[in-house]
C-alpha cells in the first residue's frame, strides 16, 4: 500500500502548494476597475479569465478572497441579464425579487461549487445561492459605476455600493437558488469528502473508501463521489507528484 500512502501525502501537499500560489496571484489583481476572480488575460473577452475549469484550489482561493467582502453584508438589489437568463435553474423574475433584503451569512465551497448562504435581513428563512462556474464562469467585485461586461449573467448589489457580478463567456455555469441543497442540486447528496480533507481522513479511512471503487487512478481522483473538488488538471498533477501511473 506504499503507493496509496504516497498518493495521500502528495495530494495534500500539492493542493496546499497550489492554493498558496493562487492566493498570492489573486492578491495582485486589486485594480481600480474591480477585482476579477480568477485572473488571467484573454483576448476573447477583454477581461481576466482562467484558461481551464476551476477546481478545488481555484474555488477555495475565490472563497478566501470574496468572503471578507461579502459575509454579513445585506443584498440591496439583484438584476439578471435577459440574454443569459436561461442559465438560471430558477424562474428569473423570482430570483431578482427574492435576493434583495437578504443577508449573506457565509460563503463556503462544496466540491466545485461556491455556496452563498443567505437569510432574511432580520434572520431566518435560509436559502442558498450555489454556483458551479464550470469552464467560463468568473466573478467581478466592482463599484456600481464600473461598466458591466457583456458576459454578465447576474449582478448582486451589496450595501456599500459594491456589486458582485457573475460573468460567463461560455454559458456553461450552473446557478441554483435553493432551499434544499440535496433535493434541488443534482448529485449533491452523492458528493464525497472534500479533497483537502484528505490529511484529516488518515490512510485507514482513505483505504476503506478506496475499496468502494474500481476506477483507474486518474478517473478515481476525478470521481466526485470519491473525493469532491478534483478534476482533470489536478488529478494529473497529483499523480505526477506521487509518481503513479494514471491507469
Tell me the CATH superfamily of the largest domain. Answer: MutM-like, N-terminal
User: Gyration radius, to the nearest Å?
Assistant: 19 Å
- Return the average pLDDT rounded to an integer: 82
Would you identify the CATH architecture of the largest domain?
Answer: Alpha-Beta Barrel
Q: How many domains is the backbone divided into?
A: 2
* Separation, N- and C-terminal Cα atoms: 16 Å
**Quick one: CATH class of the largest domain?**
Alpha Beta
Q: Based on Cα principal axes, name the global outline.
A: elongated
Written overview of the protein:
This protein has 247 residues and is an alpha+beta fold. It folds into 2 domains: 2-15 and 192-242, no CATH class; 33-189, MutM-like, N-terminal (N-terminal domain of MutM-like DNA repair proteins, Alpha-Beta Barrel), CATH 3.20.190.10. The protein is built from 7 helices and 10 strands. The protein has a 6-stranded antiparallel sheet, with helices on one face. Strand 1 (30-31) and strand 2 form a beta hairpin. Helix 1 (2-26) packs across helix 7. The chain is elongated. The two termini are 16 Å apart.
